[in-house]
Design goal:
By secondary structure, this protein is mainly α. The protein has helices at about 5-15, 20-35, 35-40, 70-110, 110-125, 130-140, 145-170, 175-180, 185-220, 235-240, 245-250, 255-280, 280-285. α4 (about 70-110) runs parallel beside α7. The model has no long low-confidence stretch (mean pLDDT about 85).
Length: about 290
């Protein structure tokens, strides 16, 4: 009987979830149109043309123009670059901090565990968005500040998750065997235990990207995220706040709003599919 690798089993279980596959296709589509935005539109997303202000969708401007005469289709495509980049980079920062601190807390325990988890509790004691808004107000709106702020404020969840996995795995036979033959603690943590604890962290990171995109959109909507004229879906919504635009110019807020809704929903579908694919109970049912 042919042996099926673990990765193929995980992929097979993932493919059974039709919503997860749909979410993955949509996510790939958004990434591709964002990367190849210069080939999909001839308009500069930051170039104003006051003679073309507030134009409805047409053959020349597929999504219309905003109050500065900028092409909304171009800004939506290029805004995807920034929003997706903020989501990925901030999660990368969060994981870099959370993996190290969670591994140290779970593996060594004792004072390391107490100090790191109490620091995490301090972060949890403040509402996330209130703290992000406060820090953004202090340092000013910037795409780099937004990435760093969201990444630093998000590490406790990944640290706690990895700590719990390390507490379960550090006394398993393979970890004890590696320690017995003289492997140093860093090798045991990151070479032997971490690969076996990565699956829940991968699911958490996937869902974290969606959360970061929403947070960036919220900060940019308030004028504290990505500063104009650089397009992001959040600051595009910020430009559409006036009541007369909301009521009579839906083409200015529908494209970025729908883009945020669809991309976050698709990422959540992918995250749910990964969670089911890595679920040990699914293995028992095969």
């Amino acid at each position: 009987m042919k042996q099926i690798s673990q990765s193929k089993k995980i992929w097979r279980r993932f493919c059974r979830n039709k919503l997860a596959i749909l979410g993955l296709v949509i996510l790939i589509f958004f990434v591709l149109v964002s990367v190849f935005a210069p080939f999909l539109t001839n308009y500069d997303p930051n170039r104003s043309n006051l003679r073309n202000r507030n134009l409805p969708p047409s053959g020349d401007h597929l999504f219309g123009t905003d109050d500065m005469g900028r092409d909304i289709f171009a800004r939506t495509l290029y805004g995807g670059r920034i929003s997706l980049s903020v989501g990925l980079v901030s999660v990368g920062i969060s994981l870099s901090i959370g993996v190290v601190l969670g591994a140290v807390a779970g593996f060594f325990g004792g004072m390391f565990d107490t100090v790191i988890m109490r620091i995490a509790d301090v972060f949890y004691s403040f509402p996330f968005m209130i703290l992000a808004i406060t820090i953004s107000s202090i340092f000013g709106p910037s795409i780099y500040n937004t990435m760093i702020i969201l990444g630093i404020l998000s590490w406790p969840s990944s640290a706690r998750l990895l700590r719990a996995e390390f507490l379960k795995l550090k006394n398993t036979d393979f970890a004890l065997a590696a320690t017995t033959i003289g492997a140093n603690p860093s090798r045991v943590m990151f070479r032997h235990i971490l690969p076996n604890a990565i699956s829940p962290l991968l699911v958490s990171a996937t869902l974290g990207v969606a959360s970061a995109i929403l947070s960036e959109a919220g900060l940019s909507f308030l004028g504290l995220g990505v500063p104009p004229p650089a397009p992001s879906w959040g600051n595009m919504l910020n430009r559409a706040r006036p009541l007369h635009i909301l009521a009579s110019m839906p083409w200015m807020w529908l494209p970025p709003g729908i883009a945020i809704f669809v991309i976050v929903l698709s990422i959540n579908f992918v995250g749910d599919g990964l969670r089911d694919a890595f679920d040990p109970r699914q293995v028992m049912n095969e």
